[in-house]
Structures
1.
Amino acid sequence: MKKCDGLTRWLERQTSNRVELPFEDIEDEDKIGVQLPKSAKQHQAWWANDVNPKTMTFHCRLWTDAGWRVEAVNLRKEVVIFVRNRN
């Protein structure tokens, strides 16, 4: 299993429908352990949700495959908010 799949696995284990996740927790080896690229910390677009499987980025699949989407991201505070997709 790929190291970056840690975010997918972490989201799959959540019991709430909304989680606020600091970038620090994403990168912490004892929590999720996924190293974010500089672009994730500098560009809002990196966190964009894409529903088209043909154009979806690899990193978007990390949360989409777990059944989540990004609701908001605050680059200044380095926090991303995920919400569970409703089917």
Note: The helical segments are 6-12, 23-27, 38-42, 58-64.
2.
Amino acid sequence: MKHKFVHSLFIIILFLSSCNSAPEKKEDTPIQAAAEKTSGKFQYDMGKPEKKWTLPNDLLEISGIAWIDNNHLLAIEDIRPDLYLLRLDNSVVVEKKTPFHETSKQKFDIEDVTVVGNTAYALYSHGKIFKVDNWRDKPDVKEISTFLSKDNNTEGICFDPNFNTLLVSCKNASDVEDEKKSTRAVYKYDLKGGSLEPTPYLLIHKKDISKMGGEKLDFYPSAIAVHPKTNDIYILSTKGTKALAQYTHAGELKAVQLLDANLLPQPEGICFSPEGVMYISTEGKHGSPAAIYQFNSK
């Protein structure tokens, strides 16, 4: 009888002990945690484009795109200061090519383009903006100088309808006192006032990008666009790290999505349709032609 009592007591003790001991929780690695954080917020599956258009040799170094309508994009490439009106069907057709600046340089470094009404704005890497009124018919071109220079390496421009401004992103130096060399800046150009605001609208910090991306990442902005539905700001990076960063309109980093370098070897152009369809252009590289990809939101 005593033996049975001791045995029963031992079983009860084991049962209570198992109830009070919680299973050991395995902590996520920084990469796993960042992946979960990113995937929960990012709207697009960057590994699965809806469509792809291969571009002709004239656009091998395509460096910027702007949405025109459901069948057309405006593009530039960074050798000649020309605007290319592209029709996107089963293949790409260059419907119109419009020169907007005379130059004797072999490579002029036009880096991005955006469209506001009947006006196209093309960005030069040395900080200058070309305003091309009536770009479809009789182009009237005005050169706009800013305080930015080739040291800033201006590569991204887009229209922000919320403030009636252009956003200009710098690939290199931010020109902000006390900021690290790795910090990148986005400036606002006031269309009504006709000037670039001296204080950056948004600062891109390497530590924030690395923390969100789950590993140490350099970030070199190559293109920028404002999402028409959420007003979030999407910024492409190329040169080493291929990535897409998503910021709120107030400048808070929401997500960082690493990009497949085989799919997008040199992503340098981004734009959205009014419905939020995203287009990204990549230069040709290693014998492969340039291309434009369409990504639909999830």
Note: DSSP finds three helices and 21 strands in the chain.
